Amino acid sequence: MLLVLATVAAVLATSSPAAVVLGPPQPTITGEPVVGGTLTSSDVGESTTYQWQRCDPSASACNSVDSVDSSWSDIAGASAQSYMVAPADTGFFIRVLAMSPSTAEQWVASDRVGPISGAQGAPAGVALAPEHGVQVLAEPVFGTVEVKTPGGSFQALTGLTELPVGTIFDTRGSRVRLTAATGAFGSTAPDQSVEFYAGLFKIKQSPGSGSDATAKLIGKLACGAGRPTTARAGSKGPTAVTTAKRGRKLWGSGSGGYATSGRGSTSSVRGTIWLTKDTCDGTLTKVVEGLGVEVFDRKLKKKIFLGPGEKYLARL
Asked: Which terminal residue of the chain, N or C, has fewer Cβ atoms less than 10 Å from its own Cβ?
């Protein structure tokens, strides 16, 4: 009996399938591989780190399998789960690397997509252009410029891109160059370019003929009873005190049909470097150099011209 059982066990051991060793999950990419399109990586686990890469097919085979293949280069600032395809990617293949505990803390490469074709909705080779009241051209000057299109999420701006009116720009610690269109609604005649920096804003442009492209300051502004508190040490223990007022600001440099807008005023540029700052008391406009700006005080319904070294507070 014992001999029979041993024989059966031996047969089962030799006939059972070999253990299958599964590798780390491979990310997959969804989205249209065209300039202006958004590519999104699948989620391969918690605490995932991403890095988007491009490869020039004219110089190499652009194989996707090897995560350390030197023919692939990192796209600066493209480390989120989604990536907005830039004009600089035209003609290249794109892939994403993912690393998380589920990938054994090693980079795993997706299959490649592309080659990237021209602007979304336009044939390859067609130049990008602003459109009055519809879209602007945006290009990072330095730092990581984050953009959020209507209905989308923040992602890095990596090259010259067409972005719709209503896009939010985060230039806190960075700088962006914008080019709007001048003329009537739908016109693609480019205006001069302007640079905005050190602030959070939404770009607006009404369909009216000749209307300015306006950078509207956004973000939280703590005032009055809503101002945050902090603890201060004292002889009787810590006490809560109100912190300093928190403002929001934006610097601009350039000329053309552009303006900045705060809570109390709108400043139209004539060619200058200027600051717009929202405070709990109102909107401060300050001109550093250049031709100056024209400030419209909404409460007083009047215009004030500011030259170099001058400033104005439109009180609420």
From this structure: N
Cβ(149)–Cβ(164) under 8 Å? Answer: yes
d(CA 205, CA 209): 10
Q: Quick check: is 205 in a domain?
A: yes
**pLDDT tens, residue by residue, 172-185:** 999 999 999 998 99
Residues 217 and 292 in one domain: yes
Of 71, 91, 119, the domain-final residue: 119
Query: Model-level pTM greater than 0.70?
Result: no
Considering the domain boundaries, does residue 7 fall inside one? no
**Assigned domain for 233 exists:** no
pLDDT tens, position by position, 52-99: 988 887 777 787 666 677 788 888 878 888 888 877 777 888 999 888
Boundaries of domain holding 73: 29-119
Q: Is 167 exposed, middle or buried (0-12, 13-18, 19+ CB in 10 A)?
A: buried
Last residue in a domain, options 119, 148, 169: 119
